[in-house]
Design a protein that fits this description.
This protein has five helices and eight strands. Helix 1 (29-35) links the parallel strand 1 (5-9) and strand 2 (37-41). It has one domain (5-144). The protein is α/β, with parallel strands linked by helices and 157 residues long. Residues 147-157 have low confidence and may be disordered. The protein starts with a strand and ends in a 13-residue tail after the last helix. InterPro entries: 2-thiour_desulf (IPR007553).
């Protein structure tokens, strides 16, 4: 029986692709692989950004660094490329890294670079939601899992 495809932020799948070249590997990654065909994407890298890269936050619908360098176009380009990958794999569910200016689906940093979180969504999460994707995070992963599994947390390396 073919496993359903699950789009996953590459950092949650153990890739060192976060802005600081770290990952946020899920402790239940092996279990996820038992239930789903994981499609790993990093929209920021797909948009041409290097790793490591400057920290960015959403500021009035733009993706900026603390020094006001604008990476909005790279984020939009990467989001579109990652969406295409998902569509080619007939995927309509995603497991994304919360708080990211790309993948945050419920909360993102407020644009002041003070570590303050606000309700909102990143560029990629917004695009996926517009396209009808069901979006999950490390905090809501238990809903995604088919079996009653212990709550799965993100474990930054």
């Amino acid at each position: 029986m073919k496993k359903p495809p699950l789009l996953i932020s590459a950092c949650l799948a153990g890739k060192n692709c976060r802005y600081d070249a770290s990952s946020a590997t899920l402790s239940c990654l092996a279990e996820l692989r038992e239930h789903y065909e994981l499609i790993e994407v990093c929209p920021e890298q797909l948009g041409g950004l290097l790793t490591p890269r400057p920290c960015t936050e959403l500021v009035k619908e733009r993706v900026l660094t603390k020094d006001a360098l604008d990476f909005t176009e790279q984020f939009l380009s990467g989001a579109k490329k990652a969406l295409l990958i998902a569509q080619l794999q007939a995927c309509n569910i995603a497991l994304l890294m919360e708080r990211s200016p790309s993948c945050g689906s419920h909360t993102v940093y407020d644009g002041t670079f003070s570590g303050t979180l606000i309700e909102g969504e990143g560029v990629f999460a917004h695009l996926l939601r517009q396209m009808g994707f069901a979006i999950y995070t490390a905090q809501t992963i238990e809903v995604l899992m088919k079996a009653n599994t212990a709550w799965c947390e993100s474990e930054p390396r």
